[in-house]
Specification:
Layout (H helix, E strand, L loop, with lengths): L13 H22 L4 H20 L32
Length: 91
C-alpha cells in the first residue's frame, strides 16, 4: 500500500477544503434562491457555483485525500435492545 502524506488523519488538504467550500457556497446560494420565491436565476447561479466547485475538486485531485484504514474488528458481544424480540423460556 502506498504511503499517504496524511497518514492517520482524515482532515484532508487545504486545497480539497477550498473545493468543498466553493461547493457549499453554491449550495447555499441555490438554497437561498429556492426559499425567496423561488427565484430561479439565483438558484441556477448557485448550481453553476456548485459545478465550478466540482471542477475545482477534480483539478486538485480531491480523491487522493481519501484514507483507507485497516478493517476494524469488533468483538461480538451480547447486545440487549428493547426492539429485539426475545423468547421467554419457562422452566
Amino acid at each position: 500500500m502506498a504511503e499517504s502524506a496524511h497518514q492517520g488523519s482524515h482532515g484532508g488538504s487545504p486545497k480539497s477544503w477550498f473545493a468543498v467550500i466553493i461547493i457549499l457556497a453554491g449550495f447555499t446560494v441555490g438554497g437561498v434562491g429556492l426559499t425567496i420565491g423561488p427565484n430561479w436565476l439565483i438558484f441556477w447561479i448557485g448550481a453553476a457555483i456548485c459545478a465550478v466547485g466540482g471542477v475545482v475538486a477534480l483539478l486538485v485531485d480531491i480523491f487522493s485525500d481519501v484514507i483507507i484504514d485497516a478493517p476494524r474488528v469488533m468483538p461480538e458481544g451480547e447486545h440487549q435492545s428493547p426492539f429485539e424480540h426475545h423468547e421467554l423460556t419457562h422452566h
